[in-house]
Automatic annotation (TrEMBL):
UniProt domain Serine aminopeptidase S33: residue ranges: 6-75
Taxonomic placement: Eukaryota, Metazoa, Chordata, Craniata, Vertebrata
Entries under SUPFAM superfamilies matching the protein: alpha/beta-Hydrolases
Gene Ontology CC, one term: endoplasmic reticulum membrane
Gene that produces this protein: Abhd12_1
An example Gene Ontology molecular-function term: monoacylglycerol lipase activity
Protein name according to UniProt: ABD12 lipase
Organism per entry: Baryphthengus martii (Rufous motmot)
InterPro entries attached to this UniProt entry: AB_hydrolase_fold (IPR029058), Hydrolase_4 (IPR022742)
Amino acid sequence: PTESGFTTDVLALYDWAKERSGNSTILFWGHSLGTGIATNVARKLQEERGVQADAVVLESPYTNIREAAAHIPITKIYRQFPGFGYLILDSLALGNMFFPSDENVKVLACPLLILHAEDDDVLPPHLGRKLFEMARSAYKDKTKVKFITFPKKLGLGHDYISFNLELPALVK
């Protein structure tokens, strides 16, 4: 799998769904790694086809893959060693893995909803907040960008925001 391949696959899925859905709303919903794919596809649609996504929902997002890799728990023990940036983080770029949501949200114009749990121990909530701030500062219509955090007491962590019973109403 590659970043380009994921993006191409989701564009093909979008085309397939659009062809069969009539005038139904189609939104891109990405979770974790998928948030980078969702923003890539929304940007590609907008820039290459002149089509604005109906909406983008980012659940447990990050700014870009380099920053995400620098914060995920599995890299914690390696961060202290010299060469961590070069050997681990730069190798992602050498493999053409960027997932630049931070750059993508700066050019999007569609409604954007960012969801993050305060007890996310995989991708820290400050990455979601940072992405929100970047998008909000770039969007002309600030009302199109929303950020919702879920308190620690709910225990949603990285993987269970979708279990929240209020989520359908929040997305609407």
